[in-house]
Amino acid sequence: MEEKIAFKNLHSREYQGHKKKVHSVAWNCTGTKLASGSVDQTARVWHIEPHGHGKAKDIELKGHTDSVDQLCWDPKHADLIATASGDKTVRLWDARSGKCSQQAELSGENINITYKPDGTHIAVGNRDDELTILDVRKFKPIHRRKFSYEVNEIAWNMTGDMFFLTTGNGTVEVLAYPLLRPVDTLMAHTAGCYCIAIDPTGRYFAVGSADSLVSLWDISEMLCVQTFTKLEWPVRTISFNYTGDYIASASEDLFIDISNVHTGRTVHQIPCRAAMNSVEWNPKYNLLAYAGDDKNKYSADEGVFRIFGFESS
After folding, report:
1. Contacts of 166 (CB under 8 A, 6+ apart)
2. What is the pLDDT of residues 79-104, one digit of tens each?
3. Domains in the chain, ordered, with CATH?
């Protein structure tokens, strides 16, 4: 039974702290902390009260020497976070102290990072379409693979035995893990596939494309079962809510679309003032964090992100 949310009664709050635009937002596994990664070369961790007011306390993670493009939390540990940067390093941080505990020097500018759901491995993609898998304990690469096509976002399925790559050819490449043996090529879209999200129940995954569509796939059949058509620009970022009933998607359109996964219909649109870089639902509450290319009236980066879903502003 899906829950019904009175979206029109919900509000967004704004969080300021970065000096340049925010590229990535991500929640920890308990839904109590949110991390933001920015072009200002820092990440920040914010303590978010889902129902409280209070000013959000934040801690700065300093050390990268280039933009922090993507970050992700350890799926099993609420205080460990990994960041990927254009400075060619991947770093592991303790969000309580703000200290970097591990660092790996890789071969290129990192743009994508994701944890295996059991927390043992991290996959990193770089601008040269190279994939590196790190063993989290030793923090050393255990696999490297260069692809002959444009690799965009990467993801594991819930059980960790399948690995997905979205490509510039409009396909989703499905690999068996850990051997990274090709299993399937899904002709998903007529233009490049940019982003992928796995639904929390493990039944579906969704793909966002440059053709402005989001496709929903049944993971056991590898068949497309639904298409979301509300956006008009290339889809940059997508996320399922914690029950798997809703999907948020965003682009250069000046709104974030929230659609019902089962019917394909839009249930709400969050207005935004700029192209969005990252949307992510909280794993426990219906709170959606989002960040984009917001500028102030002097055309300088605002360095903000927002969270939608609060009952009072």
Report:
1. 151, 152, 153, 154, 172, 188, 192, 193, 194, 195, 196, 207
2. 999 999 999 999 999 999 999 999 99
3. 12-310 (2.130.10.10)
